[in-house]
Amino acid sequence: MFAVWQRMAKLGDAAAQNNLGAVYREGKLVPRDYKQSIRWFTVAAKQGYPTAQFNLGVMFARGLGVARDRVTALKWFKLAAEQGNVNAQFNLAQAYAKGAGTSLDLEAALRWYSTAAKQGDKVALKNYQLIKAYKAKTFPKKNVEQTASVKAAPVQSEKKKIVPVIAKLDRLQLPQKTLVSNPVKARDPFDAALTAYKSGDYAKARLIWTRLARDGDADAQFNLANMYRNGRGGTLDLKLAHKFYLLAAKQGRRNAQFNLGNLYMHGRGVDQDYQRAIGWYKRAAESGYVPALINIGFMFESGYGVKQDRKAALKWYLRAANTGSALARLLVRDIRSAFAQENSGPAAKDQKNVKATTLASNQTNLESVSTKDFRWGEKMFFWPPKTGTSPQQMPRKTVAQTAKAQPLDPFELGSQAFSIRNYAKALQHWIDGAELGDARAQQALGEMYSKGAGTKKDYRKAVNWYRRAANQDFAPSAVSLGLLYQNGRGVPQDYKKAAAYFQVAASQGSAQGQYHLGILHRNGAGLPQDNIAAFRLYQLAAKQGYAASQASLAWMYDNGVGITKSQKVATKWYRRAAEQGHADAQSNLGVKYFFGKGLDQNDQKAYVWFAVAAANGSGAAAKNLVVLKRRMTKLQIKMAAKSSLKCIEKRYKNC
Description:
Low-confidence stretches: 138-187, 346-406
Distance between the termini: 59 Å
Strand content: under 5%
Shape: globular
Helix content: 55-70%
CATH superfamily of the domain at 48-158: Tetratricopeptide repeat domain
CATH topology of the domain at 48-158: Serine Threonine Protein Phosphatase 5, Tetratricopeptide repeat
Radius of gyration: 28 Å
CATH class of the domain at 48-158: Mainly Alpha
């Protein structure tokens, strides 16, 4: 096993690098060598691997192989703690409770003890309760000092983690909040601003954070920059957002460094500058910040600010994947698949993204639905999801035509009953199958209860059945659960939990999961707002033929969001979605023909796509059709109407 870890470590696998560090530290498979241990822990820690960051902190705290340095130990404990490592959270709380490597700060100690306790650390819970009691003046001060030493630096407790692998999907680490709640040190004005922000009093929050930001508070600077970027509590001012991100970034705030990179990447409030963008992303990536690692990988993959280099992109994606990022794993899988296709035979060359010249929109008042595709609200989050597999559409196994047919299982019997609208019998068969552990039946029951088909609508029961199926790694149920959390149906609305379930599905290759995860990134709900991550997720789902994702990907190319603007590529993806019956894509394809953007101008074809989109429920297309008719003759309209009917008969192919 040691030889395997060596090979994997040299290839950049952070888990293997951490394992080597642990082996050299313990001296079990090889002679003990603290210098080698430090070396491998450091390499893995710099990739953002939390267990290695914790182990490195222990080495500095104990002076193993290095001079004892509590300040450096605290730095590594903090990085690991922020990624959810419970032992690092405990040791960080210890440091604040003792004033070891930092000033004594009981508020910060309470926060980190509480965080560790929520992960099941009983000693952390005990220390939290004792310090809380002390603060209430129940215990004398000397008892609290004893409390802080209840649990020693947990080198032994980490032994069980000597052979870690990439984190399981049900424990995915979500990126940091957009709004910093300042877990390190509690300050009354800062907390007052945070309370005001959460209650919707943005003006008050902005005022308080402005004062703190001017005094050099990095957390306040970051939050203030976010408010200027979003226009919360006052005017939207990207230049001031840039100013305060820069101040926070210079103090080492990695999410501020990342957001600065985004501003330069997309030219918001500053001139677009890919070199500066990648420079700030790399600053954020030094501590293993996953969104920054992914964005750097994307820049190498696409050739933004650097020479296009997919091997280098793979390296950055692997670093992110080693922290447990589901999106990074998908990107690694995607790029390796591309390499495999190239090695196995000739592959179609990717169409190059070209910058389109800005086209005049004319003065025609033509409405395009492209701008509504990403409006936040019910129109983006259909309930029930349009693309969800309804029970009557679920595939049924074909019974072999043998002398004696095999009996159908409960799920198949339920599917047959549902197809003839015998909902009561379908419900009973699916309950039988679900109790036997059939994830398909559990998903079908969730659908019935969520829609009220054949039974009373009951979101709580739907949640129960979806969860049972999702626990069996059934991707459709993970998506369904994510949608319930996203919309607050049967559970409190929680975008973070929605994101976690979408990540589980996406990591299993679910196009639906990838698409909905992309929406959350696009809108900054439960995840940092990140157009590049959204683009890549839409791209992964679109390649699987998922129409909604193809339409969203087309919109991003059409508007130059997260990718270089390209009318031709946008048209290609609109067409693919339109041919699957996606109404908004059909309408937008009509807009392309109307203006001649990305293809030759053609009123006849514009009419066809507006007409079929309107027939599929697009209000924008219906309005566009009225505008288009004003410049067409009666004969042209008659011919176009016939073509529209033929297009529907051909199921939108070759229209």
